[in-house]
Amino acid sequence: MTGPTPTADLIHRLAADPDASFALIARAGASGSVDAIEVLTGPVRDVELLADIPLQDATGAPREVLALVPYRQVRERGFEAHDDDAPLRCLLVETHERVDLADAMATLPTETIPLTDAGFDIPDAEYADIVRRVITDEIGRGEGANFVIRRDYTAGVDADPRLAALTWFRALLQHERGAYWTFAVVTPGHIAVGASPEAHVTAQTGAAGEASVVTMNPISGTFRHPAGGATPETLAAFLTDTKETEELFMVVDEELKMMSAVCSDGGRITGPHLKEMSRLTHTEYMLRGTSRLDPRDILRETMFAPTVTGSPMQNACAVIRRHERTPRGYYSGVAALFTPRADGGHDLDAPILIRTAYLTDGRLRVPAGATLVRHSDPDGEVSETHGKAAGVLGAIGAVPREAPVPDPDEPTPERRPLAEDPRIAELLASRNARLAPFWLEPQGSDPGPLAGRSALVIDAEDRFTTMLAHQLRHLGLDARIAHWSEVADADVDAAEIVVSGPGPGDPRDAANPRIARVRDLVHRRLEAGTPLLAVCLSHQILADRIGIGLKPLASPHQGLQKTVDVFGEPASIGFYNTFTARVMPGVSRLTPSETRCGKVGVVDVAAEATTGDVYALRGRGFASVQGHLESILSRDGMRTLERLVTHAVGS
What pTM was estimated for this model as a whole? Predict the structure, then answer.
């Protein structure tokens, strides 16, 4: 018998040393396949803030760091979270080796890891009740468009933790496909093993002196494979499902908010694509832009993916805190690998921590969440959590696998990706016909029609304002964003144009400090007669000030695309509203005697002919719109935005 191979020796050494901290990472290459395992070793350091991640050693030289970022870190952005003291844990990489995949698979252990007392911590019926409450109490009351609520599959593990980690890592490599990262991270008192399908954010260096290319990969819409596997016929039905389509569009909108905050060019969409895994197929887009920010700042501004939290992000965190019974730990956080570059900076590669098994103090935990939208079926969302957890649980043998393990001595039949089927490719491509060309095509750099003007954009806790500001800049305005709680009256009064933005909540709730402040800002501009554009929540507040009544919609318009008449011109616009301003059907103009604010003069009203739901308003020095002209769902967003801003500044 020959001696151990270098690969075997390395893995045996890691398994045997109880003090060693290490990570095994399998990253898919350009072809989508894995041919090597990366082995990272080094000491561990826990830090408080993302800015504290030590990207330089004691001499100031750049070093490689793998950071496990827990969900509780969203508090850096001022968002709510249950606090479980999960550390922001950094593996300070001293050695980084690549080992052949086949050698690693031959060496990694294959023992069965027995589990005890296994099952979901929240029974199916109770989880379905939570889904109903979120749809009724949160989405139904205007708190947001979609929310991700998780539950955990738990079990006892009576085995050496390192043996379990290496065994499960091998099992995921063998039985799960389509993962962006397959990984095992072993540190004192904590183990994470997973197969994440989703790259949350990457930042890769361009040419010398150029900005980093930032990529985000929103994945949403979940097709659970039927018995016998997915077929073009069964997948086609999924791709035409309204709920699944709108779910993906909503998360793309949410991630474009983040891209617009970190990228000077806002971000461009490519796709959609399919992400095919062992038990599930997802739909996805790719978003790309450029940034000169420190990668830690990019990570902070993109905490965390709407695909595992919801939108708008700040309110989603509050909803999660209200409806999830326990802290999330690392679920929905990221594993962030910072790799030194020749110029002294760092590249960033950060997959989302989902489809991951955690082992702490002899207990296994596999969290799984479902995205809840206005169309959600509670029983269907229960099934979605089962399907997502089953990818990990099936691989590690906790639940039956989808199909028998193929005989390694038999040739593997060639499998054609479903996306190559002409019917599927056509269905995917057809989705983009609904979307705004502004976000799909290269964005020009020519001076816009409003060049030379400036705008103050009020953030009312929906970062759609970052996309809105980006569009305003393309119209030529110098746009600056200010948070509602920080902007001074003097700044509001001095601004050439104020764009009062969207936000969650009931516009009638004057006891809410945010609503009260936005009301004050809108009223100041109306009374002064100085240029104002009000969007969504601010549009409702403006309508109320004028004297138009506000009503909750019978069915929320969260992620809804409609073609409406905006002052004589049809416009395809995306809507995210639960409340509406409403006039008598047929009303298209209000005289000063019909308003509560005579200074606004005559008010033009663009409203639904049958219901009186108000889509837009305009008068002396102001315009407003209920829809989100910045959304990817607004095909005519830029044209309509230009019309309304031009009216506000020139009327």
Answer: 0.87
